[in-house]
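[job 0412] stage=complex_fold ligand=LLP status=START
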Amino acid sequence: MPSSIRTLAGLEIAALAEKHGTPFFLYDRAVIEQRVSELKAFDVIRYAQKASSNIALLSLMRKRGVVVDAVSAGEIERALRAGYRPEGTVAPGVPDIVFTADLFDADAVEAIRTHRVPVNVGSPDMITQLGKFFPGAPVTLRLNPGFGHGHSRKTNTGGEWSKHGIWHTQLEECLRLGLEAGVKIHGLHMHIGSGTDFEHLAQVCGAMVRAAKTVGPQLEVISAGGGLPIPYKKNQGRIDTAAYYALWDSARKEIEAAVGHAVRLEVEPGRYLVAESCALVTQIRSIKKVDGNLFYLVDAGFDTLVRPAMYGSYHEISICAAGGRTLGAEQDVVVAGPLCESGDVFTQEEGGVVVTRKLPEAQVGDYLILHDAGAYGAAMSSNYNTRKLATELLVSNGKAEVIRERQTYDHILQFERIPEDLKGN
Ligand code: LLP
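[job 0412] stage=complex_fold status=DONE, emitting structure tokens
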């Protein structure tokens, strides 16, 4: 990504900023459609909507034949509002929505019971509980095979320190629990962290084959989980999706031979489908020197994009000059946000180490763009410092449409109440 740009998804950044204000997330529909097409070899693409769950994006996924994963009652609600139906409308015999979690909270029990949503259980307790409120429920078991992988310690989802999934040695016990509870355990799922590499993946596939043989003929579906990486840095290569599929497909074939019938192969990406489709556009509001360091201060912080502050994640950064002038030579810059917190820095590494980035010499009023912000960007935004959630725009056929309006203070404050005796003077 060049450090100086004028357009995103074919549209003038300055014109968009003047019309919609900053900060905003801009998604390019064509990129999402391209990523979906790259995974079409899988029988089912199940979008892990936690990555970005705007109902416009979910509707786009549905139109492109992608079903969804939901990790909360709220995500079930989003899926329903985007037109998904639990019984399956997108592909024959495939549930539109699957609920994945390590526990049921009260809202989830209500939503699953009401809408009959199949469940991917992450704890043995869930099997017994599910049998009570949804007898006969179709169930897949999310297994922790005993090892894991992730782009940071916080995104590693396997091994003995992970809270996710059913420990692999408890598989037989869970099959027994399923029989006792009267639910239909028909599938296995493994999501082993975000940022999978192939050597590791082969290990995961091996663990899946072993587990599938234990389940036997009742097995109908396996899910490879998500975790397909994207090149956040310019020098990182793209994942070979065909090789990724080939590994899983050969595991599936081995499983089919063992269980004696066809087995559906699902993949459950979040990041891969949306990360690269979206940029976060901010405006530089102050440029200051702190001793020898130069800071560009922009109007979005970790309230809007938390990944750098939370994981030390890297996002490419570009500048767009506001008035069409040519930008100056590159210099070392720290990029930080408006929050009243020293960790509110976009150029930082894991552990909170602040670093600089080479960026063109800019002026107050120029736009600063954080790329690849489509996954875990808007979805992880907060109202910290009582700042409004940013506008989200979707570009389709050269036209940007608002898919989430900027929040208002009334939205933010609507559920707060002042006790009577504290009102007035
Ligand atoms: N399936 C399950 C069960 C998951 O827990 C996740 C992610 C996914 C699929 C999708 O993973 P993906 O394909 O997006 O890597 N907030 C972090 C990532 C947390 C991932 C949590 N689970 C980040 O910003 O990198």
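The two ends are 56 Å apart (CA to CA).
[job 0412] exit 0
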